Amino acid sequence: MTPSEGILQVATAHAAISFSIDPEGRLLQHAFGARDRCEPGGQDAFPVSGNGWVFEPAMSVVHADGNTSTDLRVVRWAAEGDVVRIELKDPQYPFYVDLLFRAIQEDDVLESWTVVRHGEEGPVALTAFGSSAPDFGKGEFWLTQFHGDWAAEAGMAEEKLGYGLKVLDSKLGVRAHQFRAPWFLLARDRPAQEDEGEVFGGSLAWSGSFRFSFEVLPTGRLRAACGVNPFGSTYHLDPGETLETPKMVWA
């Protein structure tokens, strides 16, 4: 597959996420959810700070020369066995971000993670490095979190998301699930039902501090950014090294 071939869809038996490339080479995400879902237009598939995105970014970078602006364009996309890799690059720097997706057909599960590498003249500081940042489109959404403490774990709390930013996170570093579980449910159009409707389950395959942000934009679209909690965790990436983020698992 090459960028000129139009729509790329990563799909399981009943769910899918789809992408395209705009005339300037930016990666756009379309529908995410039920396989027959259709969302008009396309949104930035992996928003980064410094390219005009003014909401919660999936990634923030301080380049070796101190510049804090990053703008990613598609180099190529290709299937590598059961993994789809979408390679992105900053036009001004030898800075690369690969978005990787694995569809587990029989379980209707989608894994999503990123790999960062660069060839700049010195270390690059990653001040945020998300694993997944899907756009859920317009609609009403209900978020269920699982919270608690010793002997009272995994209490369920559901709320309707309104405009602005909602964050579920842990800053504990170790035993990070103590007060809040690193997974959630997200229901579209109505509160989550046991055996009907469209409900997403999300979990980060990571035992350390995590952060899930959900932002209802002024347009009414819901954007998530999920991954390692960047709090106190700036990662200094040397030239030639790579950083692979934990996998975000969607069902």
Looking at this protein, list some descriptive labels.
251 residues; mainly beta; 7-stranded antiparallel beta sheet; 21 strands; 0% helix
Mean pLDDT: 93
- Given the C-alpha coordinates, what overall shape results? globular
Number of strands: 21
Helical proportion, percent range: under 10%
Range of strand content: over 45%
**Measured on Cα atoms, how large is the radius of gyration?**
18 Å
Oligomer: single chain
What is the string of SSEs from the N terminus onward?
A: EEEEEEEEEEEEEEEEEEEEE
Could you describe the largest sheet, including whether it forms a barrel? Answer: 10 strands, antiparallel
Structural class: mainly beta
Uncertain stretches:
none
Distance between the ends: 25 Å
Total helices: the number is 0
Mind explaining what this structure looks like?
With 251 residues, the protein is mainly β. 0% of the residues lie in helices and 54% in strands. It has strands spanning 8-11, 15-21, 27-34, 43-44, 59-62, 73-80, 83-89, 95-104, 109-118, 124-132, 135-138, 141-149, 152-160, 164-169, 180-188, 199-204, 210-216, 221-228, 235-237, 242-244, 248-250. Strands 6, 7, 8, 9, 12, 13, 15, 16, 20 and 21 form a ten-stranded antiparallel β-sheet that branches. Strands 5, 10, 11, 14, 17, 18 and 19 form a seven-stranded antiparallel β-sheet that branches. Strands 1-2-3-4 form a four-stranded antiparallel β-sheet, with no helix packed on it. Strand 12 (141-149) and strand 13 (152-160) form a beta hairpin. The chain is globular, with a radius of gyration of 18 Å. The protein starts with 7 loop residues before the first strand and ends with a strand.
